[in-house]
Amino acid sequence: MSSGSDMSCEGRLKARRRAALAAGGWPGGLTIILLGLLLSLPGLFSLPPIDRDESRFAQASRQMLESQDAGGWIVPRVQERPRLNKPPLIYWLQGGMAAAITGGDADRDAIWMYRLPSAAAFIGVLLLVWRLGTVMFDGRVGLLSALMIGTSPVFQWEARQARADMVLVFCTVLAMSLLWQIWRSERRRLGLAAALWVAVAVGIMAKGPITPMVVLLTAATIRLTTRTPWRGRIAWWLFPVVTLAVVGPWVALVMREVGAETYVRLVLDETLGRASTAKEGHHGPPGYHLFIVLGLLWPGSMLLGVGVWRAVVRARGGERARGLDRWERLAAWWRHSPRAAEAFLLAWIVPSWVVFELVSTKLPHYTMPLYAPLAVLSARAVVASLSKPAWVRERGVRLGAFVWAICGAAAMAAGPAALAELGRPTEGVRWIAWIASAVLLAGGCVLIALVARGALARATVLGIALMGVCGGVLIGVVLPGIERPWINTRLLEAVERFDPRTERPLAGVDYTEDSFVFLTRGRMQAPTAEELPDWLRANPGGVVIVRETRLETDAELEAVSDAIEGFNYSRGRMQRLRLAVEASPSAPEE
User: Fold this and answer.
1) What are the backbone angles phi and psi of residue 147, rounded to the nearest 5°?
2) Beta bridge partners of 525
3) CA angle (100 as vertex; 122, 488 as ends), nearest 5
4) Kindly report the CA angle at 95 between 90 and 97, in degrees rounded to 5?
5) How far, in whole angstroms, is CA 548 from its chain's centroid?
6) What secondary structure letter does DSSP report for 561?
7) DSSP 546
8) What would you report as the CA-atom Rg of the chain, rounded to the nearest whole angstrom?
9) Do residues 531 and 503 touch, judged by C-beta distance below 8 A?
10) How far apart (Å, rounded) are the C-alpha atoms in residues 519 and 48?
11) Which span out of 62-71, 304-313, 430-439 was modeled with the highest average pLDDT?
């Protein structure tokens, strides 16, 4: 009887999976691609280079493009400094993309070319999340979870950044999708296992140990907490073989270039160092990521807690352990539960999330590889709310939904207007920002009304639409159209007016941001204030970027430009800068 029941259950799961795939074919995939383009293109071409990581990545990729030999593609460099704290895949992708568009002429490149790999990876992530949600549950969950990812603030921003993070997320979600297929497969499929480990190895080449950490922790959690061993289907032996084949050649070449000891020390500092001490001031207490995910995944965060909780409690098998305490019941559930999708998603999220919370160095985007399962569970809860279950009317759920709606509506409505008023925009951009704020405020009021009526699914869909508009206006129109944060572009205009033929040496003493290194194509040097006199003697006619107050105390410098004022967001302060040259000796008196 039990065997027949299990077979019947398995047959229903297969039928549901086939129906889900049939509902989510090419039309659904094409829709996701078009939505991905709509969400990622505004601002991709018009946003100036961002400090500091994006500009460093782009400059290193440009220098690969400018290199005349293969050695330049082995060791990424920013000016003369090797940049080996990140693996080379993103530099190869960015440099290759710029080479394809410019025909190999680095003088014709632009920052948007180096952003294209991130935009493509963003669309790939949306497709993977859509398919994962569709296969695990149904087409509505798949589409909703992809839209939650696509409109979340952190993904909208990273889709337009020439950095490694979006490529890392794509590799990780691809590897986890393959791991899910292997776990649900009834037989060994060596090709599927090989694809898994290739995705893991490519993830290592994208950004180090994150992809293998997530995959291995998930696989270990599933093995330890369920009665379904891998039985060789995962082909563990392929992991070192494929990793050595993919990563090994580049590591060997780098060690030949910079030395094995130097490279090993750098890798240990980047991994163990970030885990034990906060690097570059990026620190935070345990619970940091748990707190900010509610904002970074908005609008997909309304029923996030409900979705995770339902994944834990919605399980058959608890009846078998009624006489046990709650922890034993939980363990018994996980061993016996047929809810394979929920168990897999929780195994994906929980152990890796604990690691990110314990690591000393914290940045908001670190947990992005875990947003896909969070979005699927949240979308599952939103779809479940359509049937008006009892938990929709619970006080805690309603209060959380109200806080979600009010905070989200306020942030969206205030964002464009605040940036426009504080950032010195053109008159046209100011009007667009205020119109967008009014529309978002009206939409936010409707959002709150829907939550008050208990229409949580409609509220989520409206939140997705509003967040898509907000991200497009903020990143695509307002940010490129304001003046105050973009000191670098106005400095470049001043340099080009004073030195139109780019013949003079250039140095930044009081402004050394990487975006200006990129905009000046690596020309800008960075001597310290103490080194400035020697630099001026070694570079006659050189142009120096200094604070205006320095000119009042340094008689050796003479201003050659008007003051350029703006907000240096990397340092969190206003700056007033000028271009200066070595002062001419005064003429002798007659």
Assistant:
1) -70, -35
2) 507
3) 70
4) 95
5) 37
6) S
7) E
8) 27
9) no
10) 9
11) 430-439
